């Protein structure tokens, strides 16, 4: 036995297994849980749109455009047992719902989520994409909402909250609030009033905007804004900075080192779009501030290239906008192997379940200003509770959300 190789041993062991156990069992002979959905019978899709009352500027552009509008895609998957799954997207991909993407989902088993994901993703490298007149980006965006709805169905079917269905690690997750936008006609005084409001709401982690060079904000201006906030909140509140691709490499090196003494948790998307991955290596070698990026990546392949730079400390892949929970979970494992924290972009009620299911989840993004993020405050009749900078998950099966139908009727237009 000492001379037997592992391969020989495994081969011999296989011969001892009855051949009938090595053959795939026909579907008709498999046991099944009572009441488990077997088929998606109908898909509904809504596009929500709501004008914003002011422009919230990032480094280069305002949220929602120069005539700002908030967007949200809502998908409902109806199954043969009456269980309905809800999924959301950032608003992209609405066009493909009008043009038949739901036909790829109707009739499928919702538990075959991997098969459905590959079926839809396959369009992105298929002649059918062009023949249908769809864009690759629209398909990737639509996948996010469909995929989330599938997970909602599966978790509801077994009576578990999504984070436990995925394999729970904890039932609460730290949260930060995003604010500190450049706002027309408003300066440091108004910024401090805003931040004071976040502290009064119980937040102990805040993200601010920097990088507004083309809007007339110098490195010194950004430093003055951030220092004023640091002086207000003291040393025990986390401060994250988001440059939204506003700086070139030399400016990012200079700015990050000037800001270092303000105890910055991370600097996010510091470099211009045309060289925002490979140049991070040089930035990493020349700064002591941790770096974060990845919200703009739409697949694991793009995110892999970013992670393999060795430059980022936090991965921010957004499953709500791109490719869905299935893709996010693959990236979570990759990030773990590379010793990276996960700090996903946007939508805490979705990403909260995901961070609660992995050990390398760091913190969630959240919102506290109805003028900036109206849907967070209006469209839900049930959502996970955020209190004192922590999101708490309960035992509600699935994603744990219910929609306010009046708000959906007010802002929604039916796609399907």
Quick structural summary:
Helix content is 35%, strand content 19%. It has 416 residues and is of the alpha/beta class. The model is unreliable at 1-34 (pLDDT under 50).
Q: Overall mean pLDDT score?
A: 92
- Estimate nothing, just give the exact number of structural domains: 2
The name of the CATH topology of the largest domain is TIM Barrel
The CATH architecture of the largest domain is Alpha-Beta Barrel
CATH class group of the largest domain: Alpha Beta
Overall body shape: globular
Tell me the span between the first and last alpha carbons.
65 Å
CATH superfamily of the largest domain: Enolase-like C-terminal domain
Q: SS-based structural class?
A: alpha/beta
Rg, alpha carbons: 23 Å
User: How many strands, which pairing sense, and closed or not: the largest β-sheet?
Assistant: 10 strands, mixed
The share of residues in extended strands comes to 15-25%
Measured as a percent range, the helix fraction is 25-40%
Q: How many β-strand runs?
A: 18
Q: List low-pLDDT spans.
A: 1-34
- In DSSP terms (H or I, runs of 4 or more residues), the helix count works out at 15
């Amino acid at each position: 036995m000492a001379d037997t190789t592992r391969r020989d041993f495994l081969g011999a062991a296989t011969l001892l297994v009855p051949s009938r156990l090595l053959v795939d069992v026909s579907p008709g002979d498999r046991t099944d849980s009572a009441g488990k959905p077997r088929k998606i019978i109908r898909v509904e899709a809504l596009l929500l749109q709501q004008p914003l009352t002011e422009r919230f500027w990032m480094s280069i552009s305002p949220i929602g455009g120069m005539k700002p509008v908030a967007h949200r895609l809502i998908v409902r998957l109806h199954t043969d047992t009456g269980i309905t799954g809800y999924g959301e997207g950032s608003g992209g991909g609405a066009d493909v719902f009008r043009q038949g993407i739901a036909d790829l989902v109707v009739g499928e088993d919702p538990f075959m989520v991997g098969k459905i994901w590959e079926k839809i993703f396959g369009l992105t490298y298929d002649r059918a994409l062009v023949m249908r007149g769809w864009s690759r980006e629209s398909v990737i965006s639509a996948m996010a909402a469909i995929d989330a709805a599938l997970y909602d169905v599966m978790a509801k079917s077994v009576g578990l909250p999504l984070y436990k269905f995925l394999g729970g690690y904890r039932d609460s997750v730290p949260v930060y609030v995003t604010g500190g936008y450049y706002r027309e006609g408003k300066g440091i005084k108004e910024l401090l009033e805003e931040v004071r409001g976040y502290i009064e709401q119980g937040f102990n982690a805040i993200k601010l905007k920097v990088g507004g060079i083309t809007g007339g904000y110098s490195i010194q201006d950004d430093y003055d804004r951030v220092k004023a906030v640091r002086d207000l909140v003291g040393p025990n509140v986390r401060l994250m900075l988001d440059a939204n691709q506003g700086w070139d490499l030399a400016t990012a090196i200079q700015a990050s080192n000037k800001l270092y003494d303000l105890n910055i948790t991370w600097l996010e998307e510091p470099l211009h779009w045309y060289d925002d991955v490979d140049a991070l290596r040089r930035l990493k070698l020349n700064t002591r501030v941790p770096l974060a990026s990845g919200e703009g990546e739409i697949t694991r392949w793009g995110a892999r290239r970013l992670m393999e730079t060795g430059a980022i400390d936090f991965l921010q892949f957004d499953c709500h906008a791109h490719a869905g929970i299935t893709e996010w979970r693959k990236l979570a494992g990759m990030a773990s192997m590379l010793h990276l924290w996960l700090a996903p972009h946007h939508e805490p009620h979705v990403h909260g379940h995901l961070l609660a299911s992995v050990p390398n989840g760091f913190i969630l993004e959240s919102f506290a200003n109805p003028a900036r993020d109206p849907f967070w405050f209006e469209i839900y009749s049930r959502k996970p509770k955020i209190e004192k900078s922590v999101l708490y998950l309960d035992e509600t099966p699935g994603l744990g959300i219910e929609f306010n139908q009046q708000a959906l009727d007010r802002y929604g237009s039916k796609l399907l």
